[in-house]
Amino acid sequence: MIGGGAAGLSGALVLARSRRSVVVIDSGAPRNAPADGVHGLLGLEGTEPAELLRRGRAEVRGYGGRIVPGEVTSAVADAPSATGDLRFTVTTADGATVRARRLLVATGLRDELPDVPGLARHWGRAVVHCPYCHGWEVRDRAIGVLAVGPASVHHALLFRQLTDDLVYFTRGTELDEATRARFAARGIEVVDTPVAAVESHDEDITGVRLVDGRVVPRRVLAVATTTRARLDGLDGLGLPVRDLPSGAGRHVVSGLAGTTSVPGVWVAGNATELSAQVGASAAAGALAGAHLNADLATADADAALAGTRTATQPGTADAGAALGAALGAATTA
């Protein structure tokens, strides 16, 4: 597994419980680290992100999986085995290498905020992006939506469900008369004057300063980030990527259960589904892990059959040794 968040650990857990040899390489920089808790995850609502990962790592280790801290600098496909099975080499920043038969890429994504002075320091607390991840925690506060394009219109409607005091800062985004009428009907104030900076006092946001000097009091700011799959060090795999419209982000293209066009490589979580919360990412990782195990089971059978056929050919010195070697190589996931 490349990535040790909800998707990577869930995939590792499924594989470890299937008696596969599993290594999780994790950089230790989860996207949700600034958040106070994980939300929308049934049975674990409000769990601190670090605590959730601690439990997940312990569960994977409990079934024999290994968690290796490190940054992946290279991942490439090697020549296949004698039986035609796939092989990969993953290298980390400290020079260590891991040989693997299959890969699950669960590296998550990177959020890019608009370049508004004073905004980034409040990310994950008073600056939020997802009404489902943070909405309840910021309910009934004075919220401002910093537009980043047409999609921010729907963003505003979602956050209006959470507060009666909502201001939409257009930041150059054009609003037609129908949208302005809808906003007015919902009591959403529209500010067309360009934004200069976010005003703060200690750790709290106090307002949004406009270029004309006026400050609009706000306590929370909602902004849709540009979301890009974290693929540092993975260029050698040739993963298929797709850019979202209007520069909204980039993700890995995947099919059923996280399959990719690269044989032997699966992807799960935010690297392929940019809007997935923790629960959805964990489910995707578990599904990918199950399909990955199924693929390995087929490869194991192929290798065993190849070993049997070799053993029955004239001149084979030790049929048992040949079959054992084939099985031994095939059962290392």
Description of the structure:
By secondary structure, the protein is of the alpha/beta class. The protein has two domains: 6-110 and 226-319, FAD/NAD(P)-binding domain (3-Layer(bba) Sandwich), CATH 3.50.50; 114-222, 3-Layer(bba) Sandwich (FAD/NAD(P)-binding domain). Helices cover 28% and strands 23% of the residues. The chain contains seven helices and 19 strands. The chain has helices at residues 6-17, 49-62, 131-134, 152-160, 177-185, 278-311, 319-330; strands spanning 23-26, 66-69, 72-77, 88-92, 97-100, 103-105, 109-112, 127-128, 143-146, 166-169, 188-191, 195-201, 204-210, 215-217, 220-222, 226-229, 241-243, 249-252, 265-267. The strands form six sheets. Strands 8-15-9-10-11 form a five-stranded parallel β-sheet. Strands 7-16-18-17 form a four-stranded mixed β-sheet, with no helix packed on it. A hairpin with a 4-residue loop joins strand 13 and strand 14. The longest helix has 34 residues, at 278-311. It is elongated. The protein starts with 5 loop residues before the first helix and ends with a helix.
